[in-house]
Amino acid sequence: MPASRLGSAGKESGLMSVLSLPRPYLLFLGDVTDLSYAKTAAGLRDWVPDQCVAEWALPGNPLRLGLPVMNPAEAARAGARALVIGAATMGGALRPAWVPALLEAMEAGLDIISGMHMPLASIPDLKSAAERLGRQLIDVRRPPADLPLGTGRKRTGKRLLTVGTDCALGKKYTALALAQAFTRAGAKATFRATGQTGILIAGGGVPMDAVVSDFLAGAAEALSPDAPADHWDIVEGQGSLFHPSYAGVSLGLLHGSQPDVLVICHEFGRKRIIGLDAHYPIPSIEEVIELNLMHARRVNPDVRVGGISLNTSKLSEDEARRAIETESRRTGLPCADPIRGGAAFDRLVEACLEPEAALAQ
Predict the structure, then answer these.
(1) Which CATH class is domain 20-139?
(2) Hey, which CATH number is domain 158-357, 3.40.50.720, 3.40.50.300, 1.10.10.10, 3.20.20.150?
(3) 3-class SS shares of the chain: helix, strand, coil, % to 5
(4) Cβ(262)–Cβ(169) under 8 Å?
(5) How many CB atoms neighbour CB 274 within 10 A?
(6) What string of pLDDT tens digits covers the 361 residues of the chain?
(7) What are the boundaries of each domain within the chain?
(8) pTM of the entire structure?
């Protein structure tokens, strides 16, 4: 799924201007053992595989992405120019245990790219090593300066936003897959990245969770400005209105993106909100539709739900087919796993593009 098929993503000026990043990459997994917290590495592997030389984890970490395993010196000899921190932590802090590995990467000749909230240069050992060795410390989770306040003004063009029952269940992958599919169908479409992984894939965007809360809606408006009437912005969703930690960024993005179409993302079988010690059950798809439509109608009374994106990565092919068919019948909406594709995904794409193609909501 190469980035060259992502419509016109990353080819514009302004907030979507192309980043100048040293490529290709060595993907660093650190000591993260849950793939849900290695989304950046997995996303780069899946969408820009030609830019991923190898993966590397701390000793004892069993997590693997299926790429060649190389240490920094080996990766540098294989052509890597930068190490990307492909793991994440709650709160976005860089773990002290990772610092020696990052120093080793710089000694091997690699720059460091991070999507963490903590700036790389705020760590004295990294800053001094970078200065001594002439290496770059690149933070992609830095929002543009002078972001505007949201206005709610109606903008031209069309917009689709992926929203979800929880975090880390496929909003980015769904948006990327839909951007590809819209382009294949002859529509003009741009993937709009709102998180660090999407920005690394597309080459530009706004890291919404790093924006001061008062400016979230304005940042989303600036990310998806006025466009020709037949142009679609496919906006990568963030968080969930139902997640106690991240609902704020979800709401700001929902208001600012002013979507015409929502696609509801859900992981089949997930029972509880991730990342919290307290038990919060996953909301039903119907609850997610109701709450997101209520807030989206504040800025676009004509917003509609195009369908459901169902993450079936833990199911067999037959199990996934049955789950997709069951959810479609139960909700009366097109339902598909965008990664599996097929006729179900074609129906979801058609329903998003054409209101009359959607089933009765």
Answers:
(1) alpha beta
(2) 3.40.50.300
(3) 40, 15, 45
(4) no
(5) 19
(6) 444 334 433 344 446 556 778 999 999 999 999 888 898 999 999 999 999 999 999 999 999 999 999 999 999 999 999 999 999 887 778 999 999 999 999 999 999 999 998 999 999 999 999 999 999 999 999 998 889 999 999 999 999 999 999 998 999 999 999 999 999 999 999 999 999 999 999 888 999 999 999 999 999 999 999 999 999 999 999 999 999 999 999 999 999 999 999 999 999 999 999 989 889 999 999 999 999 999 999 999 999 999 999 999 999 999 999 999 999 999 999 999 999 999 999 999 999 998 755 444 4
(7) 20-139, 158-357
(8) 0.87
